[in-house]
Design goal:
Helices cover 57% and strands 15% of the residues. It is of the alpha+beta class.
Length: 143
């Protein structure tokens, strides 16, 4: 499949849909940092719904990943990307600089795939469960 571009929250999102993978470009003009803030949880969820629906329309079958897990992966990659960019602007040891540059390269394309093809799917699924549990606990304590 080829890359496609869609307008989302006043910015452009570049994505590619494959049978078991959705890829999102997170570089340059298509960087998600400006699009997801000031409410990254809600906006990443909206983007996840949009892309999941596009996948389902194209392949005429459901994309078997929870929408919240897709949103967690989008949100997580974007936050890590912003952290690495910030760290590369300050003086740090060369070994850390190299490591952050490698990690920055890894966050440039967000690969969201089913467990059969995505080796780190379990990380985002667990992050989604733990994050959801923490939000639930904090809301419950306020009442």
């Amino acid at each position: 499949m080829r890359w496609q571009v869609i307008r989302f929250r006043g910015g452009w999102v570049r994505y590619r849909i494959e049978p078991q993978i959705i890829r999102i470009d997170n570089r340059g003009r298509y960087h998600l940092g400006k699009i997801l803030f000031p409410a990254p949880n809600r906006y990443s969820y909206e983007l996840a719904v949009l892309l999941k629906n596009k996948h389902q329309q194209q392949y005429k079958r459901p994309f078997y990943i929870k929408t919240a897990s897709i949103a967690t992966e989008i949100w997580g990659h974007t936050h890590l990307d912003l952290f690495y960019r910030f760290m590369l602007k300050i003086p740090i040891p060369k070994i850390l600089r190299r490591r952050y540059e490698e990690r920055l390269h890894n966050t440039s394309i967000i690969d969201i795939g089913v467990r059969a093809v995505d080796t780190n799917r379990i990380v985002w699924d667990i992050g989604n469960r733990i994050g959801g549990w923490l939000v639930f606990r904090s809301i419950k304590k306020r009442k």
